[in-house]
Write a structure and sequence with these properties.
Layout (H helix, E strand, L loop, with lengths): L2 H10 L4 H16 L3 H5 L6 H17 L3 H5 L1 E4 L2 E4 L11 H15 L3 E5 L5 H9 L3 E6 L2 H14 L5 E5 L12 E6 L4 E2 L13 H4 E2 L5 H9 L4 E10 L5 H8 L3 E8 L5 E8 L3
Parallel strand pairs: 3-4, 3-6, 4-5, 6-9, 7-8
Antiparallel strand pairs: 1-2, 9-11, 10-11
Bound molecules: glutamine.
Glutamine binds next to α7.
Length: 276
């Protein structure tokens, strides 16, 4: 048994070779602090370590548990975030939304941010880490909020990202005005078939009624009461949802901009609250 044969077992089980190598690298680093440099220097793993590696890979192969749940961490915008099966695994695409928020905060010196459906807190924590703004993250799931709190500690951002259990705006007071409301809500229409890996993620973080649009509609309806005038409402959106979300926003928002991801798919919708 060697790192190579264990990598091959992952590939033979149908994991793309480049993905398999990446996952082995993550496992080696996480469990044994064994880096690419160690490998280049020909450092060997002990047989006990190889056995552990094989066990983790067996878990990955058996029911396709995402590697991030096996190691309990996910890489997002330069940091490792704690993740458990109670939270969605941060996705690369979400970086688009977060970068847009950070740019707006820096450009306009914005101070108060609300992140709805914060999950692992990856959006809230990354904004707090990279700006001077204060972020309130809300989520309906207490289990998710526990993970988000651990991430605040992990990233050492202390009280600049705070969390509250709330079903959307339920526990947010109207006098708490925000310069930005940001959200990557559940947006997959019920009934959509998911990859086996994705089936391990919490349903509540993935699926929404009204063909995936329900949570957007609810947020768009309430957001005007909680935003400063000219404040920004910013969403990550699912495939083919941008146009409908934009039209839901048109009554109360202006300068609505849709941005594509690297795959050319409409990925974020951002608008500003009209004066009322
Ligand atoms: N805000 C978190 C993220 O972007 C969780 C999103 C969700 O669970 N829908 O990863």
């Amino acid at each position: 048994m060697s790192i190579q044969t264990i990598t091959k077992s992952l590939i033979d089980a149908g994991i793309e070779p480049s993905e398999a190598k990446y996952e082995i690298k993550m496992l080696l680093e996480h469990f044994f602090n064994y880096t690419a440099e160690d490998s280049a220097r020909g450092k060997e793993l002990t047989s006990e370590q190889l056995e552990t590696l094989q066990e983790k890979v067996a878990l990955r192969i058996k029911d396709r548990t995402p590697i991030q749940y096996i190691i309990g961490e996910a890489w997002f915008m330069g940091e490792f975030f704690k993740v458990t099966p109670d939270v969605l695994i941060p996705r690369d695409e979400t970086e688009i939304l977060v970068r847009q928020a950070i740019d707006l905060i820096r450009e306009h010196n914005l101070k108060t941010i609300l992140d709805i459906g914060t999950g692992s807190g990856c959006i809230a924590c990354t904004i707090a880490k990279n700006t001077e703004a204060t972020v309130l993250g809300v989520d309906i799931s207490s289990d998710a909020l526990r993970v988000a709190l651990d991430n605040v500690t992990k990233l050492k951002i202390n009280n600049r990202a705070v969390f509250r259990k709330s079903d959307l705006f339920e526990k947010v007071r109207e006098d708490e005005k925000f310069d930005i409301i940001v959200s990557n809500p559940p947006y997959i229409p019920f009934g959509t078939e998911l990859d086996t890996e994705v089936q391990h993620e919490p349903k509540i973080a993935l699926f929404a009624d009204e063909n995936g649009l329900q949570i957007y509609r609810k947020i768009i309806e309430k957001a005007p009461e909680y935003l400063t005038t000219g404040g920004y409402l910013m969403f990550e959106v699912g495939i083919n949802e941008a146009a409908q979300i934009k039209s839901l926003m048109e009554e109360n928002f202006y300068e609505i901009i849709v941005t594509k991801d690297l795959a050319g798919i409409d990925r974020t919708v951002v608008g500003r609250l009209k004066a009322r």
